[in-house]
Structures are given as structure tokens and as C-alpha cells.
Amino acid sequence: MSTVVKVGTLHLMPSSGTPTPGGDPTSASTTPFMIDADSNWTLKAAENLGVYGGGPPFHPGSQLIYNSFDNVQHPTFRLMIRGSSHNNAVALMQQLYQELNTAQYSAPCPLFVQPNGATNGVYQDIWSGDVQPIQDPNTLVGLIGGTSDLFVNVTLKCWPYMSGASLQTLLNAVTYTNTGTGGNNNFQSLGSLNGDFIKSIGQPMRITFAAPSTSGAFVGYIASAKARTYTSHATSITTSSTSGIDVATATFAHPSDDEGTSLRLIGRFATPSTNLEVQAVAKINSVGTIYTSSWINAGTGSPNGAYIDFGYVKLPSNLRRAKAIVITCTIRARSTNGSATSGTLSYTELVQYYTWLKVTTTFTSTGQQLELVGADSSIASYNREIVPPVGWMAVTIGGNITDIVTPYGTFPRAYSGAGLYFAWTFLGSHSTSATFGSVTAQQMPLYLVARGGG
Amino acid sequence: MQWPFLTFNIFERGDAGVRTSNFVTNIGSRIDEYEQTIGATVGFESVRCSFVATLEEALDWLRNGLMRSVVVAAPDTETIWEGFLETIEVDLGQERRSVSVAPIANRVKARYTTILGSSAATSILNDTASQALYGIKVATIRLGVSDSGSAANEATVQLAFLKNPRAVPSSECTTAALGQIRVTLIFAGWYTTLEWETTSNTTTSTATTVPTQVATLHGLLANPFIAATYASVTGVAMTQYIAPDTTFKTAIEDRLRKGDGTNRFAWGCYRNYSLYIDAWAGATPTTINYRRMIGEPTVYDADTKMPIYPWNLWPNKMYEVIELLDVASVATAADTAARYCIERVVLTMNRSGYSVRLEPTAFDSVDVRLAKIEALWGDVV
To answer: Do B77 and A413 touch (CB under 8 A)?
Structure first.
């Protein structure tokens, strides 16, 4: 097997080792292109663009605050173009240039590289390709000289990451029931993942949610999470206090080595009165307060139950790495007006998450799907970005977009050991009667360099 | 952790400039220069962001962008800024185009002095087409001595001139490279709209400034841009008299500036498009809200010891640097070597990273401060 290098539909390496003069560039066996071995061409990995803060003269060494990567410009390689005639050679060169530079016309051209001996190849979106004619090193003639063999220098500027051939399916048509416990609860494991970034910045996902038949205003909470502590309370709330009373407490043993996560505090309330407000207070080992949420109305518009997002806690790095920390979350309740108020704290969830996303839209008919596209599966059709620079969400029917969804927060990304958290409300209420019966979550494995088997 | 993106959700302008939930786009990941300011007596004050665009995008913003509303959300979904699109600037190579609602006025009258020396005003002139697009924006033209007919003519002329958005174009013809097409969006916080309308009150009896008078004034606003007012403090008794053609901003701030009779207040439009009035943090300067160690790029909550993301830093907070902790500082002094009360937060984000500037109250001489107060009292009389 020989190394395969393709840009779009064009093969740049002949499978026979020799380019075919005037051959069909869309076939590896007959392509007229060949990368000059003297180029010693190899793919360049995107360089890490870390953002650092602090440091000298006050502190030795700066701290890494955030990681990211910028576009990569691969080393220039020399390409031989063997035409059947001078005109054919020029036409092939033009075809190459057109193929490389479709990003602003339709979609980026995908680069595909599978090294000799590798089981798998990688894809990478090409933003632009520079094709510079040069002289034939043997005859010292080039474009001017009327030769049927042309040499060009090709420079590709690409999206930072390389990706696998297709999305890896992590959850296949699973059911989410909008409940904290049970076989299809709010948090389901994504399983094992492929890719270079599963333990750093995460990898983009594509998630499809088949909406239930319920229509109305929808708010979804979607997270990529490492762990979730579910605590059933079923605690009745009855008070007229306007200063607040403690209702119940849940604990979370926060691991000591999770820099990339935050802790989200969630409460589910049944039959809340319209004058019921609730609050969450988080403490370390029941002593030091580390977070106090605002008072949130649990009753208005929530006759079938309220899903309350109390916010999040992010522990400082030095504390996180010291020892395991037990975080206690106390739910408090009060009356807004001094009149008796009531409700039931059904359960709490403490979600240790990497990314948190809130989406709002309106479902209007049956058969709709909610699609979250952070990566695309249709590489073979070459008609859109493999990993869109800007993820998008939409409501669709039969693949046709019917509404654009408003996102708040961060699109979910796949991490090693993570799960997908998903809960929602319809018309303001946290109903458990309408389920999302078919949720498919996929991730796009990303790579910094061409790979072998994994 | 991956570099965090802010969610920058743009919503269409509704009739009369009102907010809608009609989602236009999220330009969070397009922006490569971002600056937001939040002030202790404004709330969400301004956002300036820019991004490279295609010609079609740039034209869409110029044609349709004014008064679109924005909700900026942090990576963990909390809202960190809200406002409306006040000015759009587009650089098209050597050409610059811009449109802005800032100079607009679509409800105009002229106030003048009659030949006999008395104060008079023309009737109010409206351009309903402009109001239907952007909301009501009032201008009072102050003339000298005039007759009613001339004053009315001037008001009519000014209305025709001011009713539509203004541009600040420029053109250059040089040999330099043309450059990119870049769109710059300048948003203003909803607090700004308090300057759009005027009010008056002939009642001279007193009432409590906060919450009573402020709530009453909020209820008189014709534009529905500010949803509600919330006060965690109580003001003082003050005359309810408001001179004719006083903007709501001036009238409200006249009352808020009285504080609780001992200390000033902090106020502004924050989340949920509402006006919040709170005690000034500088009144209790030893209660520290934010702390920092110089060698670290992180500000911590002084109470919980938890780190605070730069976009979650707010004004009207006491801020202290640990290495500069004071020895025997004056307990009542808001500003000392180690601490000060934050008056404004300026957050800047670009490809190089981010920076946050925590600004103290601007230093004015006593004379300047007295001059400001006197000028305001002059408007009331």
C-alpha cells in the first residue's frame, strides 16, 4: 500500500509510484500528480496557542489559563504535474487550484492523508491552497517553456485539526426521560472515545434529539459532564418565612484532579406555589460557604414542576489539587410575600461538567428534531465543513430546518470518561411525561497529525 | 480548557425599537476584538466588538442592524451584558460607513423666550415613522428670544434633520493596501434610553426618592425598554418638582444622588433589562468583595475564596490587593493603598487573551464636584 494524499477528489500520489501523463486525477492508479519525494513533505501539527497569566516578577512562572490552536500552514511541497500536452498540463494545474480554493465558494476542500502502512487516514479542511509554478529542475523550463510536465509549489492553509473519516457514535437512539433516576435518566455515559483531544480541549459533537409530540416553548439544558450526584429528597416545603428556611442538603465528593470541570447545582421541585422562591448554598465540608445563588422563583409558570438551575461553582486550582473535597449543597426556600407557600423538593443533581449549554426554541409540530451540529458526518459529499468553525443548532423536520435555536453557553464537547447530561422544560414546566425517545450523540475524533491505526 | 467563547445572541428589533425574541444570529465566535464596560451608576454601559465580514454581511448590518438587541452570555450561560445596537461602523477598504441612532430625535419641540420675556414652548412635533422603527426619542431645542411662528418653523426643520439615523462616513484615496472589510458594532446599555424621553412635575410636595419617586418615574416612561425597578435601599424625602423638558435620566439621577442622606447609592440597568438601586459598597469599605494576589492573574471572591471569571467582575465592589494590605488605614476611607471601590469594569478580549480594568471613582477636585452639582440644580430652577 502506498501513501494516499487527496485534496478533494484529486489524488496527489499515484498508487503505482509513477504519475500517468494526462491521466485521470480522480483515480489513484491514473493520477498525473505526484508529490516530489525530495520535498520530504509531512503534515505539520497545529501549534498550541496557550494563554498565560501572572508570573514574574511577582511569581515564578506564568499559569496556563486557556488552551487553543490556530490554523496550520503545512510545509510547502513540490508537485509534479504530467500532462499529455502543455495545454493538458496547464488545465490540470488550473483544476488543482480550483479544487483547493472552494472555501468561499461552497465549502472547504478536504485534505485526506493516509500514510503508507497506516490503517486509517485523516481529513482536514483546507481554507486556501497556494499553487506557485516553478521550473522543471531537470530542464530548467516551466510554464513559459511549453513543456507537458509542470512543477508547482503547493502550500496549504488548513483548519487546526485533522479528523477521522466519520463521526463516532457514542449514544445511539437512546431515550432520555427527564428524570433524575432510572434507566434513562438525565445523565448517560458516552463510553470510550477516539482522538487526540479527549483529555485536553475535548472534541466536537453532533447530537440529534427527536422531540416528543408536545408542542410549545422549550428550554433544554445540555452538558458534557464527568459525573453527576443524584439525591432523591421528596421533601415537602411549607413556609411563610420571607427570610428563608433550609429544606434539604446533598453532598458531592469532588475529586481532587479535575481542573477542567465546574459543579452545577440543580433542583427539581414538584407542585410549587407561585410565591415560592428557592436558593442553593454550597459549602466545603459543610463549613465554608463557597457559593450562594440568588433567590429564584420556582412557581410561576411551573404547574407541572420546576427545574431550577442554581448556577455553578468552580474551585480554584490550588484547592482542587490538595485533597478530595466534599461539597454540600443546601436548598433553601422562602415565601415572596409572607403568605404560606409550598412545594416539594423532588431531587437535586450536582453535575460535575465540562461544558454547559442552554437552548431555547419552540416546537410546533410532531416529527421535529433538535439538531446540534458541532461536527458533520458527510465528509464523502465534500459539501460542508467537517468541523464548522461555528456550531449551529436548529429544529428540523425530515432534515429541513424549520427554526433556528437560540444558544447560551458552550456547545458540548466529548471528553474521556464523560457523559451527556440532558434535561428540559416545556412551557416553563419540568414535565416528565414527554420524553425524548431518540437521542443520538456522536463525536468527531480529532488529531494533530496523520495517524496509524488508532 | 479550551479558549472560552462568549455567546453573543442578536435579536431583531421590534416595532418602536422594542426587544423581541426573534433570534438573528450568534456572532460570538466571529468577534476578534471585544470590549465591554459596566459602570456603578449606569449598569451595562457599552460594548464594542469588531469582526471581519463579507460585503453582504456588512451591508446587512448597515441596513437592518440598528436597535437590534443583544444578550451576551458567558461560557457557563450566565448573562454578562445586555443592550441595544446604537452604532454600526463598516470599514470597506478606504471607505468607511456608519449609521447611528445616537443623534436621532423624532419628538421635537422648541422652548424659547418671548419678546415679553416669558418662557414658552411650541407644540410637540412627532415623526411617527421614525418612532415606529426606533422608539420615542425626544429633543428640546432651546432658542433665545423668538416668536411662536419662528420657533415652530425651527422645530419642524430640526425634526426633519434629526428623525433618521446619521452617518459618519469617510473616504480616502491612497496608494496603501485596501485592507479588510471590518464591521464594528457599538452597543449601548438600556440605561441610555432614559435620556430619550423627558418629563416634568409641578407638584412641590416631598416624597421618598427611592423607591417611591423612582418607581413613579419609571411608570411614566413611554418606551418599554426598562422592564422594572428594584431597590434594596431607601432614599430620602425630596420635592417631587421636575422642571419642564427634564430627561428621565436627569430626573432619576437627581433623586438617586441624594443617596440615603448619608452615603451615595449605586444604580444601573443590569440583567433582565431592569434598573437596580443598591447601597454603595464604599460606604462599608472594610467589607471586601474581591481580592487578588499580584502574581496571579485571577481575582477571588473575598468571602467564598473562589476564583471569579473576568466577565463576572462587577462595579460597586470593594477590591483589595493582598500584598498591599494597609496598616492602620482609615476605616471609613473607601480608597486606601490596598483597596478601592470599583466604579467601572472594563473587560477586553482579543486573540492575545483578555484583560480586565477595575477603575476607581474618577478623581475630581472639590471645585469641580461643586460646579457639577450647581449646574444640575440650575436645570431644576
So the answer is: no
